[in-house]
């Protein structure tokens, strides 16, 4: 029986970039943009975490960084598909804060970083009514390129 669970194809380079960023930012949260086309992410674009609440347990993508991510994606003939961030020493599950600040139509990748080492990586999409998230299956695309 075929699964109807949504899928996110994550190229090896993007997966490595997310995990590396999480490791480098630890014990703080990192954040970045997911660049690709359709359901395929080919680049994880690191963004600064400039939250006023402190980067230990929160992240913030400022409007200028959002616009820069969109421009970066357009220049690559791709799209801004969503965002990633890390959960230092916490599970790769969306928090209430993540739910409160999520935007529709984007995919959200969360990587758990335990004692400085990235572990679980999950993906999520916001329900249409904003009441929660649906899990998205993450599959590896080791080719690292978009099908045209």
Number of helices: 3
The CATH superfamily name is: Cytidine Deaminase, domain 2
CATH topology, by name, is Cytidine Deaminase, domain 2
Count of strand segments: 7
Q: How is the quaternary structure best described?
A: single chain
User: Helix coverage percent of residues?
Assistant: 10-25%
Please give the domain count.
1
Structural class: alpha/beta
Question: How many strands, what sense, and barrel or not for the largest sheet?
Answer: 7 strands, mixed, barrel
- The fraction of residues in strands falls at 35-45%
Specify the CATH class.
Alpha Beta
Quote the average pLDDT.
Answer: 89
Q: Kindly, what is the distance between the CA atoms of the first and last residues, rounded to a whole number of angstroms?
A: 28 Å
Q: Please state the second-level CATH architecture.
A: 3-Layer(aba) Sandwich
Spans of 5+ residues with little confidence (pLDDT < 50)? 144-148
Radius of gyration: 14 Å
The outline comes out as globular
Order of helices and strands: EHEEHEHEEE
Strand order of the largest sheet: 1-3-2-4-5-6-7
Report on the structure:
With 148 residues, this protein is of the alpha/beta class. 22% of the residues lie in helices and 39% in strands. It is built from three helices and seven strands. The protein has a seven-stranded mixed beta barrel with strand order 1-3-2-4-5-6-7. Strand 2 and strand 3 (40-47) form a beta hairpin. Residues 144-148 have low confidence and may be disordered.
């Amino acid at each position: 029986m075929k699964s109807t669970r949504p899928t996110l194809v994550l190229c090896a380079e993007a997966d490595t970039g997310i995990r590396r960023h999480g490791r480098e930012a630890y014990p703080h949260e990192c954040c970045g943009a997911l660049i690709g086309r359709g359901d395929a992410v080919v680049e994880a674009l690191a963004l600064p975490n400039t939250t006023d609440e402190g980067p230990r347990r929160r992240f913030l993508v400022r409007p200028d960084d959002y616009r820069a991510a969109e421009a970066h994606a357009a220049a690559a003939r791709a799209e801004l598909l969503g965002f990633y961030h890390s959960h230092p020493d916490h599970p790769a599950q969306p928090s209430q804060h993540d739910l409160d600040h999520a935007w529709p139509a984007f995919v959200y990748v969360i990587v758990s970083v335990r004692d400085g080492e990235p572990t679980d990586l999950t993906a999520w999409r916001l329900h249409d009514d904003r009441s929660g998230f649906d899990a998205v299956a993450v599959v590896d695309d080791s080719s690292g390129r978009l099908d045209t």
